[in-house]
Amino acid sequence: MQYARVGGFLGVSRITGPTHNLLQLLLTNMQIPNPICERLLLQSDAGRAQLNEEALVEAVLKGVAEANKELGTSYSVAHIKYVEGDSPPEEVYSYLAQSIVKHLASGGEFVSGSPV
Q1: Contacts within 8 Å (CB) and 24+ apart, 105-109
Q2: What pTM did the predictor assign?
Q3: Domains, in order of start, for the chain
Q4: Backbone phi, then psi, for 105, in 5-degree steps?
Q5: Can you give the three-state secondary structure of the chain, one letter per residue?
Q6: Are the C-beta atoms of residues 114 and 4 closer than 8 Å to each other?
Q7: What is the per-residue pLDDT across 34-59, written as a single tens digit (0 to 9) for each?
């Protein structure tokens, strides 16, 4: 996986054979009841099946909550960005969200300026 910082967003990309996923999160320590969710569309994704945004948001929030519980942190998601035509299932975004929080909490490097 590759980790990047784009503006205030922390992102991770995962490519495993024919599947690919990108997730970018704007994290805060304030409680955000309804994070903004933004779909990124790539021209190469035209005509591909779309991810279920509601399931994706639920998976992201679950992943951050699980990482917070494990690490004793208190991150909250303010804004989510994902690529509309990325590979399902949506549950993989729970894992990606956890990995962002764990990478951040462990002092892992996020490459600056790369769109992941």
Answers
A1: 105/67, 105/71, 105/73, 108/3, 109/3
A2: 0.90
A3: 2-112 (3.30.230)
A4: -65, -30
A5: CEEEEECCEEEEEEEECCEEEEEEEEEECCCCCCCEEEEECCHHHCCCCCCCHHHHHHHHHHHHHHHHHHHCCCCEEEEEEEECCCCCCCCHHHHHHHHHHHHHHCCCCCEECCCC
A6: yes
A7: 999 999 877 655 556 689 999 999 99
